[in-house]
């Protein structure tokens, strides 16, 4: 019985340590972002940033931000993550043509494949 208790306690401690480590990584991500010095609107909410505003049907936020902050700016996503917003055609061309540098995450690849299908 005591061995089982020690095992459960060890597993609980390992799980708690992992959760705290992941939470710390999420909370410190904005401070290490390469986009942190770009101008952009202040976040509307600490959890979902500008995502609620961007999901509205009559959304013109991107156009207003480009007019206000210039052709390249940032806005906030989930948990304060920085998201690049650019209307600079040279920057867009560079990003599209250098897929080895600007790789999509597994999640973004999955969502793209669901929406657009797999290319072969």
User: How many extended strands?
Assistant: 2
Radius of gyration: 20 Å
Low-pLDDT ranges: none
Beta content comes to: 5-15%
Oligomeric state: single chain
Terminal-residue CA separation:
56 Å
What does the largest sheet look like?
2 strands, antiparallel
Shape: elongated
Number of helices: 5
Mean pLDDT: 85
Helix and strand string, N-terminal first? HHHEEHH
Structural class designation: mainly alpha
Query: Strands of the biggest beta sheet: in what spatial order?
Result: 1-2
Fraction in helix: 40-55%
Please sum up the structure shown.
The chain is mainly alpha-helical. It contains 5 helices and 2 strands, in the order H-H-H-E-E-H-H.
Structural description of this entry:
The chain is mostly helical and 120 residues long. The chain has a domain at 33-83. The protein has helices at residues 2-28, 51-54, 61-69, 89-97, 106-116; strands at 72-76, 82-86. The chain has a two-stranded antiparallel sheet with strand order 1-2. Strand 1 and strand 2 form a beta hairpin. 7% of the residues are buried. The model has no long low-confidence stretch (mean pLDDT 85).
Write the topology of this structure.
Elements: H1 2-28, H2 51-54, H3 61-69, E1 72-76, E2 82-86, H4 89-97, H5 106-116
Antiparallel strand pairs: 1-2
InterPro entries: Cyt_P450_sf
Organism: Wolfiporia cocos (strain MD-104) (Brown rot fungus)
GO molecular function, one term: heme binding
Comma- or semicolon-separated keywords:
mainly alpha; 5 helices; 2 strands; Cyt_P450_sf; heme binding
